[in-house]
Design a protein that fits this description.
The chain is an all-alpha fold. It has one domain (29-145). It is globular, with a radius of gyration of 20 Å. The chain has five helices and no strands. It has helices at residues 19-52, 58-81, 85-99, 102-114, 118-147.
């Protein structure tokens, strides 16, 4: 007797996935994106600290700005092109969720304040906020330029 993941009366219609299969695909997409995003964050953060040192959390700032750009770009493209929801799970939830570092940003800003590096703490906080907004805006603009002439 074949192994079943659903009762016969719950068998999905032909061409439709079972709820279990939908759940598995969802977790795989988020997990795959998270794996790639976490590794990208690690590699970029390590590269930035080796290049510029650790007195200022430039790696975290770069990662957050890049994440803002990527999310702005992707969200605009996904909405305009009506991408399958699996792309949102892979890129926006998985990759960007693992790649960006808001909690690290907050902790590093706290540490700068604790060390009485108020100017650096302010630069990190306001730089992330202001330039993050600019990066999201630029991502949206680039997406719109890429979509120019696209009839979808």
């Amino acid at each position: 007797m074949p192994l079943r993941f659903y009762h016969e009366e719950q068998k999905p219609e032909p061409g439709r996935k079972s709820k279990l299969m939908e759940s598995l695909i969802t977790y795989v997409m988020v997990g795959a994106g998270g794996f790639i995003g976490a590794n990208a964050r690690f590699i970029l953060g390590r590269w930035a600290s080796q290049k510029w040192g650790t007195a200022f959390p430039i790696g975290t700032l770069i990662i957050n700005l890049a994440g803002c750009f990527i999310l702005g770009l992707f969200a605009t493209l996904a909405n305009r092109l009506a991408l399958n929801d699996y792309w949102r799970l892979l890129v926006a939830v998985g990759f960007v969720g693992a790649f960006t570092t808001f909690s690290t940003f907050e902790y590093e800003t706290f540490e700068l304040i604790r060390q009485a590096n108020l100017l650096r703490a302010a630069a990190n906080a306001f730089g992330s906020l202001i330039f993050g907004f600019v990066a999201v805006f630029l991502g949206v603009v680039v997406a719109r330029v890429l979509l120019r002439g696209n009839t979808q």
